[in-house]
Amino acid sequence: MAKSNRNAHPLPEIYDRPGFQIRRAHQNSVSVFLETLKPFDLTPTQFGALTMVSRWGPVSQIDLARSLGFDRSTTALVVRLLVGRRLIARMADPKDRRKFALTLTPAGRKLLEGCRTAAEQARLALLAPFSKAEAAEFLRLLRRFNAAFDGVSRAPPVVQATAGELVAKGKNKPTGKAIKTRLVNNKTSR
Amino acid sequence: MAKSNRNAHPLPEIYDRPGFQIRRAHQNSVSVFLETLKPFDLTPTQFGALTMVSRWGPVSQIDLARSLGFDRSTTALVVRLLVGRRLIARMADPKDRRKFALTLTPAGRKLLEGCRTAAEQARLALLAPFSKAEAAEFLRLLRRFNAAFDGVSRAPPVVQATAGELVAKGKNKPTGKAIKTRLVNNKTSR
DNA sequence: CTAAAATCGTCATACGTATGACGAATAGGC
DNA sequence: GCCTATTCGTCATACGTATGACGATTTTAG
Predict the structure, then answer these.
(1) In whole angstroms, what is the distance from residue B33 CA to residue A134 CA?
(2) Is the entire prediction scored with pTM above 0.85?
């Protein structure tokens, strides 16, 4: 308890905090992506959205959100932007009028196809600092980290895709709760 | 080239992208921090700024920015917010009238001191998914990742603090360049 | 079948973060 | 001592991201 913080330690312990390093990693990864994808004018978020819409045929915003781990209002903004660029088309879902059905426009398909190489380049650039084994370990640890906190939030992450359906954690009625509060409440409140 | 994307692969390769996992990790780490520090109403960013100002006595915004890896306009916003909350005081620097000298107010000092325990709790919570060895490895890999991309940007990261001075990469005249373009241009352009 | 609960998308608001441009001030070369 | 290049802080703008609230709709309990 003695405030033995003799500052022989030149740098504050901020740099040892996982959150700090993760934030920096995020900055860097976004930077690299933007740089590499500059000809296509796509952010990682937009790329993710396009990719998901491409895979899940007509999909609702909420399902898109869950697949990417976004909040639904975040998703609304991204979708609006992409619709504005005529990369995504929005139609009313006749089955459920609360929903929109999102699909790629031809332009969207073309753009996504066109940036495949660049996207792969970005991925490789991000793993370049590592040996092959380290890269695998890095991803493994990130996944473990995220799995531990994928929790209760307005942006519950996807678990698996059984067929053509998105299934989100805790959405199945059988077990009811039980997966509820896993470790920490993921609700980002401010 | 043959579009052999037979979607036996249910989930798109998005989840294998380091950027995606890093983004999720960032989301989660911010979430945990906010939750844990809720009584103090501090974001990770604000906490970092307060901590740095606390350590570097009177410091300019630009040095604060460098120490945290922020852009200087980002820093201006955070500082404004903290000044608004009377946690940070801003005085004109008599030596260089372009600069402000930032210090903690008594309230700032008290708040920072008060949230020490919570901040440590947050740090531990973030490392909880890992064994001790994994946690160390996680941090090591994150540092290696960031070191590889800490490059040329408006927010060049700090290298070391020699005594009471902040030293930023590439700012020393001796070697001149040589550390310049390390691997990728870190400039985040949109 | 009806009333309550859950779901979907939106809005307002707030913070984090960056770029590009700009004015004020300082530092360096000559 | 100047003129120029650099540095510092700010602004406008843009995107990412979340919360809380709300209306429209659908689902579910009785």
Answers:
(1) 27
(2) no
